[in-house]
Amino acid sequence: QKVSVEVLDHLEHLALVDFRDSEGVERLQKAIQFANQLHEVNTDGVEPMDSVLEDRWCLYLREDDVTEGNCTKELLENAREKAEEYFVAPPG
Fold it and tell me: pTM for this structure?
């Protein structure tokens, strides 16, 4: 299935990924082919879900115990690409 230039432009803007080379376009087309298999699944009578865990009454969260802090500068040194004080994700 061919992907139009307009769709590529929109996806690049949303994902911050360059699809302009043949490898990127091929990877995108394979992902679309894979996702299109979902159209073959019969979902008649299946109610939409908010979460795969929605049947649980309570989702247990662990305590967030901060053991270190004030290390923003050191963490940002690990970023391949950053904008202001934030990681750019996905990079590229």
Answer: 0.43
For residue 52, being part of any structural domain is answered with no
Question: Residue 81 CA to chain centroid, in angstroms?
Answer: 17
What's residue 40's pLDDT? 92
What is the total count of domains within the chain?
1
Least Cα distance to 29 among 53, 46, 7 occurs for 7
Question: Does residue 87 fall inside a structural domain?
Answer: no
DSSP codes of every residue in 46-69: PPP-S-TTTTSS------------
The parent domain of residue 34 ranges over 1-40
Stretch 61-69: mean pLDDT: 82
**How does pLDDT run across 15-57, given as a tens digit for each residue?**
767 777 788 788 888 888 999 998 899 999 988 887 777 677 7
